[in-house]
Amino acid sequence: MRKHLQFLVASYVATMLLFTINRVVFLIYYHAMAVECSFGELFAALWHGMSLDSVTAGYILVVPLLSTMTSVWLPVKERGRALWQRSMRWYFIVVTLLVALIETADMGMFGEWQARIDAQVFIYSPKEMMASVSLANGIAATLYIAATVAVGVWLYGTIVRRLFEPQFSTENRLHLAPRMARVASSVAMILLAGVLFVMIRGGLTPATANVSKAFFSSKMFLNQAAINPIFSLLSSAFTGDDFDEYNFYSDEEAERLFAEAMRSDAECVEYDRWLNMERPNIVLIVAESMGRTITDAQCDGEAVTPRLNALRGEGIWFENLYASSFRTDRGTVATLSGFLSQPKMSIMKYPNKAAHLGGIARTLLAEGYRTRFFYGGDANFTNTAAYLYATGFEEVIDEDVMPIEGHRSKWGYADDVVAEYATNEIIRRMDSGVSTFDVILTLSSHEPFEVPYRRLSDDMLNSFAFADEVIGDIVERLRATEHWENTLVVIIPDHGYPYPATVGNNSPERHHIPMLWVGGALSGARHIDAYASQTDLAATLLGQMGIAHDDFTFSRDVSRGDVSHFGYWTFNNGFGVIDKEGVTLYDHTTLTTLSDVGEGGERRLEQGKALLQKTFIEIKRL
Questions:
Q1: What is the pLDDT of residues 344-398, one digit of tens each?
Q2: How many CB atoms lie within 10 A of CB 598?
Q3: How many CB atoms lie within 10 A of CB 270?
Q4: Pairing relation of β-strands 370-375 and 436-441?
Q5: Helix boundaries (H) for 391-458
Q6: What are the tens digits of pLDDT across the range 123-169?
Q7: Which is it for strands 526-533 and 512-518: parallel, antiparallel or unpaired?
Q8: 251-255+275-560+567-621, what's its fold?
Q9: Domains of the chain: which residue ranges?
């Protein structure tokens, strides 16, 4: 019995040691964020992380505990001992491999997600996930997986070889151990099972284990570092999507607060006319990850996006616009359907519901427009094609359809060849006299940042410079045509980017994005200072065209004086609200306000909760 207990305790300690080593490596890998924390805070992250590490270790020990209990009551011949040990070694090899894969994937994704790996990863195929991995990162990840597996196999193998002693018998003595010894061992194992159950549950308190048990600091990086990625993934996978998780108020009260949040107290409605015609041709360029921290940046003394910056003065520039989320699938829906993003899920994951969303394309299709979507990668990514067709796009033209050749990254064709093809097709349709709504989603400014272009020394910033060059070329080619006078080009990112590395995933800097309207269809240049959201594009564009936009519940026409002005975004299980008075960040995991700067914090918190609850009221209705 002594060795049975030693085996289980040693297995627990080895598992906790592996988790701790990974957390240390995580902090070293993200040293740019870690250096902003004191040694005491980093040690606290290690300490608080042990709570969920222990829960996860408990799950891993279930099979060894059952095997140990079984071996007590099912004695085997002496030569069967090797089979028992071999089976246990293989169990730990599989566990170690899975742990290594999850921890490595989590470490790679955290840089962009700023959150530990969870069930959202299952939205993406292995091909889509690997597309963001450069050769160097792939090699590093493989080496780290191999090292983790090697350490784990050695640790567990040593423990199994020395301490895993299944009860066995000889040919002549089938009952070597006395019955009372077996009973005593079983009682001890049952008591240990009770301890293991409490460990898995997360303690004896009413609250069961969840990721909030690791939270201890106002610095989100430290809280994220303390989360065990295996627990994060498994708990979110088995919990599923809870459409009723964000019920802050009764539905009636949420509807009332939402209506108040969307309205202004202005006594009169002022309507600002920006277009000189009602039915221009529209080219919408969705620029991958091109947030304001990128467009305002410099590298080697040069602007990263000089072409976009140069266009500001001749069009309508939106100074205080905020992206709805931090992923392309959610940003696409926010842009094209004016629908708010969700903290822990993507509406594209539910194609039957996404099909009932409003759509700029569907609305314009009813007005006689022809609608197309151009993308140099795979449009089936996260059900994107299904969503696009359902919301009004007649054609979805991706890498499998475009008859083009040129540089390819893991995500698809580089922006230059895609832009050349798409612009040719757009001009050809304009020549035919048909009103057209065309969307181009760029992709080159995405990890692993491999582009056929070199102007800046930093690979990441250079890829954004390449995208800027391509977007500028699209605008100039359209300007050179006779159709420029009745054309509107809208440039907006799908989401921002975590640059510099210290920008947190929940921060306003992470979600601050540019939007620019240019073209001959504009009545003049303007600088819009009002705070707004990415979701407001739909109502604002359609409102300028004199088209009803009642299908876009969350979209405001920011050119009107009777709507409120604020930016709203969601991050991993939380939201942010910003207006001219300040900014408020709320984390639903801990049910706390992470940050509240400026006047009006209670109002912004109420607005954000109403918007979040209303989002899921609408999802349930779809």
A1: 888 987 877 888 899 999 999 999 999 999 999 988 777 788 889 989 999 999 9
A2: 13
A3: 9
A4: parallel
A5: 415-431
A6: 666 666 666 666 777 788 889 889 989 998 899 888 888 877 655 44
A7: unpaired
A8: Alkaline Phosphatase, subunit A (3.40.720)
A9: 2-239, 251-255+275-560+567-621
